[in-house]
């Protein structure tokens, strides 16, 4: 017996209820796809206006229900498309508006999510539980939108509560960075403006992440457990890339490790959630499993040990994930940024002041270790490190002495002797402050053993600097402490050389200028007058003092002030009617 349309729809709806209870989302989606085509077919052929009105409502609800199911299976673009189809039929359909808000939030499009939610709220009676929930969601949208603009995050509550609460809600953020060609041949992430230590650079969610507790180290099952986790992780990535062409396109921008000499430089803006969809249609959407495997090999990150520790996870905890824009950050053994894992998000922030145009780098592995160890770790990552610190340590004329000290440190005996010998070496080799930091970081294990033991500290006496001073000169230091004059000032020999040669040359030139300017007949606005030149001399001396004792910024500011005062005082002298007070010629 042939069923009427109403009966068919009724049957499909009760089947759908069963599937919801079983949480069989795939079957639920298939069922609603069938229901949608049934409705569309009757709408096209039908003529009865009343029936067609009710059929449109059914179709709208069907799209809305399928959107919910697609959202649950993480097919966000499919869900968004269904929400839009439902809203085309009924622009005020509250269920579809709420679903669309959630999808947009998951796509990190905070502003359209707020707009959508405002429409949903307009159609709801105030005071109801649903309206209250929508209002809370709107508050969340607003918070995330503000955060995605400024990048400023507040995780203090979470930290103060011992990381026990739910991870804080963090918005996607791409700060003042761009992708450019790096000195190591590939691409890298660069600062587009000067940044202070602590500035957030990128906050982004993982494409996928796999976490687990591995068996105790030494257990034969450890490696196979890791392999199983890796396989699950790869499957997850392939599934997501297959579903979302945008994600696949972005994954294809990452390095396979086999690029030609002229790598493609993608725009960092592509990695922003609001990048226009048209930008993603340029490349093949075919899933190339070999290529993706190579990309995962080069770009996957394990969750940083530090993050897992502070989050109270177990020692053999293991987490691996893929984060898109952070994949362009190269390694350096003297990094200027750090990454912190919060939930499935990674936060990259400047760990010291960064100059505009400087490459952003973080450490892929523990850099508080000797050159040879670091080289081995880089080899495991598949590259030879070409960072400034490695280049310095390889090229230095005292590399053999450093190697001997490393061997002595690894031997473990007379650990304080290693530290004292390095401190003596640093004085003898006359290395700059920044490079002292590099070398101390290489023997950090010896330094930390000494600083942790009162007995060893007593034995070393004043032959080694205080722990705080060493940490200050190390890799955690801020760029301004590395500034040339800061480094100069920290070294008594350099200050002595400076006092003996550089400053006398500066003062002699000023004195010569002082005696010869009256002969040159300088224009009055330059103060071609000895009295005023004397003032210039005093100001220049102040500028010099600033330059040496403060930092470069203060020195430059003092220089500008000196010149202004010089010219200003020339005018003042003329206005007050001073004539040449003391002319030599
Ligand atoms: C996650 S990717 C970094 C971005 C990559 N440079 C690109 O062009 O997309 C990691 C790869 O970058 C290269 N790399 C990263 N840091 C490096 C360094 N300090 N020295 C040399 N190569 C480095 C290595 O080839 C490494 O396998």
UniProtKB/TrEMBL annotation:
Task: Tell me which SMART domains the record gives.
Answer: SET (SM00317), TPR (SM00028)
| Domain SET: residue ranges | 175-365
Pfam families, sorted: Mpo1-like, SET
Q: Which residues cross the membrane?
A: 495-513, 525-548, 554-573
Q: Does the keyword Transferase apply?
A: no
Gene3D superfamilies in UniProt: SET domain, Tetratricopeptide repeat domain
Q: Which UniProt keywords apply?
A: Membrane, Transmembrane, Transmembrane helix
Chain segments annotated as coiled-coil in the UniProt record = none
The protein's superkingdom reads: Eukaryota
Which CDD domains does this entry report, sorted A to Z? SET_SMYD
Name of this chain's protein = SET domain-containing protein
Protein's organism: Canna indica
Organism lineage string: Eukaryota, Viridiplantae, Streptophyta, Embryophyta, Tracheophyta
